[in-house]
Amino acid sequence: MTQIDRRLLLGGLAMVGTAAAAGPAAAQPSMLKPQDLKAEAEIACVYHCDFSDPGRLNQMAGNINNHLSVYDFDPFKVKIVVVAHGPGVKPFLKDLEGTLWAADKVDPDIFTRFVSLSKYGVEIYLCAITFRNNKIDLAKARTDPFIKLVPSGVATVAELQRKGFAYLKVG
Fold first, then answer.
1. Among 28, 40, 71, 113, who pairs with 78 as Cys (CB 3.0-4.6 Å)?
2. Segments in the chain below pLDDT 50
3. Closest by alpha carbon to 28, among 170, 131, 111?
């Protein structure tokens, strides 16, 4: 087993242990492994989201919509993922209570825009390290099918680039 495989295994076991301790009611998104990441279309792009500014988030959603429009909103022609870490996970949490952002407000329309984009194959990958380092319960993450956890946001951005995804960052 390689060094990386052992880390992923141990990290995965820790995540499973955390979920088991939380009980069955604590649903969370599924965890993707680096080997699960694939460019499922000829054109693939990763949007890097490490910010929570509503203006930038709306701009990113608009850019993704424009990006999809060039390919007729056809997920067989273009694959877009958003990798969110740090404050970028905020719009994809059920609520901010008990987080370091508890005093902040999140515009629910931002999440609604991403739900609409998900109908064209857009996925959101949330960084598990963000949850762990900021002591955010994984059960706070929304569990919509287009939202997945990844072991590390920045490592996932690099892995996607290695697998042919173009890199975009808004703002």
1. 71
2. 1-25
3. 131
Cβ-contact 60, 169 below 8 angstroms: no
141-167 burial, b at 16+ Cβ within 10 Å, e below that, comes to bbeeebbbbbbbbebbbebbeeeebee
Q: Give whole-number Cα distances, 133 to 55, 114, 129, 160, 169, in Å.
A: 26, 25, 6, 23, 23
Number of Cβ atoms within 10 Å of the Cβ of 99? 18
Instruction: Provide the residue type at 77 as one letter.
Output: K
3-class state of residue 81 by DSSP: strand
The conformation of residue 29, written as its DSSP 8-state character, comes to P
**Residue 84: in which H helix or E strand, if any?**
strand 78-84
Q: What domains lie within the chain, and their CATH numbers?
A: 27-168 (3.40.1260.10)
Confidence (pLDDT) at 18: 41
Residue 147: both structure tokens together: 């939202």
**51: amino acid identity, one letter:** F
Residue of 107, 128, 119, 13 lying closest to 55 (CA atoms): 107
Which pLDDT score is estimated for 40? 87
